[in-house]
């Protein structure tokens, strides 16, 4: 098994205690996927490697790796941090959930491609103060494709119509136009504007998604719709989601 030294650029998305004073830190990279690194001595006071692998740090990490299993962090270059994420528990909870969700859609070292950009976009926006709930909904809608359950959002799944009044059917895997509302009782019964929000956030390239301002009622309705879509098509049971839902009760 060939081990090599390699530089990877990425964001630290998770860390947990390993052996003695060592940590396991997960780094989220575009081309090299999600890598778990052993960080020796990270829990000792004044550990430089420990400081460089705080949650939501990002930069260049030099690792010793064989391309699978655990890699070893050797050193780092130019590491920065998304400060607001680190300090704000709500933002932190949203970002942790987003990365957990992306993490579960991929196997280790599998290239993330555009989903890296999606995750990076999300944490940058949340760090800048954009509504984390809306950013999370965008990520969830766009990530369904990575889970192999890409919804049809462009046209009615039954007749192909692209304009009109639409609702969403989980069973049919996409939007249906009002011509067929009578034949699909299990549709989500969303208001037309709520379905329009799901279409917009699921279809638009992230760089074109500016500041979306949506009423609290609509946001709640799309949140419930997305939760149902995930429960019935992806069926994950993530602690980060549970924590986020609990946090919203306060
Ligand atoms: Zn139709």
UniProtKB/TrEMBL annotation:
What GO biological process terms are annotated to this protein in UniProt? DNA recombination; double-strand break repair
Q: Which SUPFAM superfamilies match?
A: ArfGap/RecO-like zinc finger (SSF57863), Nucleic acid-binding proteins (SSF50249)
Q: Name one GO cellular component term.
A: bacterial nucleoid
Its organism's taxonomic lineage begins at: Bacteria, Bacillati, Bacillota, Bacilli, Lactobacillales
Q: Which organism is it from?
A: Lactobacillus kalixensis DSM 16043
Which residue ranges does the record assign to the DNA replication/recombination mediator RecO N-terminal domain?
Answer: 7-81
Give the protein name, as stated in the record: DNA repair protein RecO
Q: Which InterPro entries match?
A: ARFGAP/RecO, DNA_rep/recomb_RecO_N, NA-bd_OB-fold, RecO, RecO_C
Which family does the record assign? Belongs to the RecO family.
| Pfam families given in the database record | RecO_C (PF02565), RecO_N (PF11967)
